[in-house]
Amino acid sequence: MDEIRLIEVKEDILADNNRLADELRTRLKEKGTLLINIMSSPGSGKTSLILKTIDALGEDIRLGVIEADIESKVDAEKVSLRGVPVVQIRTGGFCHLDANMVNQGLEAMEQHTVDVLMIENVGNLVCPAEFDTGAHKNVMILSVPEGDDKPLKYPLMFSVCDVLLINKIDYLALADFDGEALRRHVFALNPTIKIFEVSCKTGEGIPDWAAWLREQREAFVKEWS
Amino acid sequence: MDEIRLIEVKEDILADNNRLADELRTRLKEKGTLLINIMSSPGSGKTSLILKTIDALGEDIRLGVIEADIESKVDAEKVSLRGVPVVQIRTGGFCHLDANMVNQGLEAMEQHTVDVLMIENVGNLVCPAEFDTGAHKNVMILSVPEGDDKPLKYPLMFSVCDVLLINKIDYLALADFDGEALRRHVFALNPTIKIFEVSCKTGEGIPDWAAWLREQREAFVKEWS
After folding, report:
1. Which one of B13, B74, B145 has the shortest CB-CB distance to A171?
2. If you write DSSP's letter for every residue of B150-195 in order, what string do you get?
3. What crossing angle do the helices spanning B206-223 and B46-57 adopt, rounded to 10°?
4. Most buried residue among A65, B67, B114, B160 by CB atoms closer than 10 A?
5. Are residues A171 and B145 in contact, defined by beta-carbon separation less than 8 angstroms?
6. B174, B178, B182: best mutation site toward chain A, by most A Cβ within 10 Å?
């Protein structure tokens, strides 16, 4: 049967990927670069979050961004306008980043010293959850208009993430969105996940997210100094 | 390099899939079943559209639904409550439906006579665009909160579809959404695509979409009688 063959291929690929991701994670720790992988559906606000984060963190933390896009470079251009080093990876049809693609991104970023490197993964709640990028922390965005039932449909994504950002809370008044039900489903999958409510449009909640990122960076540096 | 190996595997799989999809399409035409494949990001409104379509088409057209979900059965249950035959395919981690999975769905639906069979594909703008399901018409939903730049990022999806439904137009007042820019990008990729603006919440635009579906069904029957 077709599916069985496909699964075998996938398992081989996943095992190779996990090995490379572990190597990357260790290498980056030694360099003092905290790697943050940001995942979500298309249009949930990954680029907006990155832009808001750049503004919120200020200049004492040196940032870098790896932008994954199937085809276009619109996101990379927006980030670049903020004066932050950015590498764009065109996945050319692939629906996720893997550790090898991130490794190529790191090589292209080599001339910069980066404290916190944010990856904008491909907009997809499925495959990015399966492919370890080598990140130290995985972050997902769920935007209010997508609905509160997403943990039931994409449980792996909610399980592998350290942080859930509920974005577009400025839509709450209009949306049929049960925040309590969402939290119940999410915590059932992942009891230790950290949740922040934000609006990349109004800026609400961004300072709390930025403070968390600063703490991670400090803990990371302390561990290795 | 890792990617090159992956591409080869993918090409083999795609070639096999295309053959099976063509067989399916012909077989369904002979049976008089119009197969409609509905694709979108997670949370754009696929299930809501299917429910609204069931209500709008009434009982003179016999409907059926194939629901793809990674894990849960919430969508299938919602459809089933409408009294329409529904088959659920749990893709178990796969981020798209392929022709083989649809074929299995059809076998499970065999005891029903179905005029229009709607597939709710996995919520994803990437892989579902690459895997032909055997559908006669491909339909995508883009919801207003996702933004007007999606054709730049997911061009293949917009290229392979016969219809684009712009959903959640009740959010237009709140959203920073340039409908003209969207249309320009979409028509550059796909000059013959049919666009409907709808709101599955208020019902606006649903009659036009339902009328189009009726026309397709009539043309389909005429062609084979």
Report:
1. B145
2. HHHH-HHHHHH-SEEEEE-GGGTTTS---HHHHHHHHHHH-TT-EE
3. 70
4. A65
5. yes
6. B174
Across the interface, whether the CB atoms of A145 and B145 are under 8 A apart is answered yes
Q: Which of B74, B124, B146 sits opposite A95 (nearest CB)?
A: B124
How many contacts does A have with B, using Cβ atoms within 8 A? 129
DSSP letter for B203, please: -
Complex ipTM more than 0.85, yes or no:
no
Neighbours of A55 (CB within 10 A): 12
Q: Do A154 and B71 touch (CB under 8 A)?
A: yes
Q: How far apart are CA A72 and CA A78, in angstroms?
A: 12
Question: What is the CATH classification number for the domain harbouring A178?
Answer: 3.40.50.300
User: Structure tokens of B203?
Assistant: 């019902």
Q: What is the pLDDT of residues B68-92, one digit of tens each?
A: 877 778 888 888 888 899 998 887 6
- Give the separation between CA A114 and CA A217, rounded to whole angstroms: 11
Cα separation, B37 vs A9, whole angstroms: 27
- Report CB contact under 8 Å: A152, B6: no
Q: Is residue B147 helix, strand or coil?
A: coil
The answer to whether residue A15 neighbours chain B at the CB level (below 8 Å) is: no
> How many folded domains does chain A comprise?
1
Rounded CA-CA distance B186/B181 in Å is 9
CB atoms closer than 10 angstroms to residue A62: 15
Q: Note the pTM of the prediction, 2 decimals.
A: 0.82
